[in-house]
Automatic annotation (TrEMBL):
It is found in: Cytoplasm. It comes from Pseudomonas helleri. It catalyses: 3'-dephospho-CoA + ATP = ADP + CoA + H(+). This is Dephospho-CoA kinase. Catalyzes the phosphorylation of the 3'-hydroxyl group of dephosphocoenzyme A to form coenzyme A. SUPFAM superfamilies: P-loop containing nucleoside triphosphate hydrolases. Pfam families: CoaE. ATP binds at residues 18-23. PROSITE patterns: DPCK. Pathway: Cofactor biosynthesis; coenzyme A biosynthesis; CoA from (R)-pantothenate: step 5/5.
Length: 207
């Protein structure tokens, strides 16, 4: 019988916008896997009362705060999307804090393996902290179609986000496993279950 090792190995899960990585992560979580979402960690480090938020307000001015003191993400996004230097400043502030938040959360995992979900797993170098990488892959036309439907956003904005994210080829080059999510949710869940069974046989993320 396999007894879980003291330290779960870490699977990095990524995919471009609209690929269905959140749906895949939810199903892994439903199967009992400890899932840490880098986006949630990124939101948590800028909560009111955390030091990062006051530094951001000091740097960009009060317009990046909402009336209730929360970060105004739309205003901040508009400021950094058009200015690479400001984006680099923000990343230099937030990335170490997000890394720490993620590491603390992953350290609490009790499952045989844990998952780090991150849209920027490759670009941010987060994949180096994982033992294996799963890419949820989807043709770009379908990515755009799904995102427009889900986020009620403009095609221009979707293309801007795609530009910041790693190219599909780059993601696939880093992948140990690829799940092609071009069918329905049931098909996605079946693939997740198949991968989960396989992952339970691995030690340290390797066969």
């Amino acid at each position: 019988m396999n007894t879980p090792s003291a330290h779960p190995w870490i699977l990095g899960l990524t995919g471009g916008i609209g690929s269905g990585k959140s749906a895949a992560a939810e199903h892994f979580a439903a199967l009992g896997v400890h899932v840490v979402d880098a986006d949630h960690a990124a939101r948590w480090v800028v909560e009111p009362g955390r030091p990062a938020l006051s530094q951001i307000a000091e740097h960009f001015g009060e317009q990046v705060l909402q009336a209730d003191g929360q970060l105004n993400r739309g205003a901040l996004r508009a400021l950094i999307f058009s200015d690479p230097e400001q984006r680099r400043w923000l990343e230099a502030l937030l990335h170490p804090l997000i890394r720490e938040e993620i590491a603390d959360n992953l350290a609490q995992a009790q499952s045989p393996y844990a998952i780090l979900v991150s849209p920027l797993l490759i670009e941010s170098g987060q994949y180096t902290t994982t033992q294996r990488v799963l890419v949820i892959d989807v043709p770009q036309a379908l990515q755009i179609q799904r995102t427009l439907k889900r986020d009620n956003t403009s095609e221009e904005q979707v293309h801007a986000i795609l530009k910041v994210q790693a190219s599909r080829e780059d993601r696939l080059r880093h992948a140990d496993d690829v799940l092609t999510n071009d069918r329905d949710l049931e098909a996605l869940k079946t693939e997740v279950e198949r991968l989960h069974d396989f992952y339970l046989t691995l030690r340290g993320g390797q066969p």
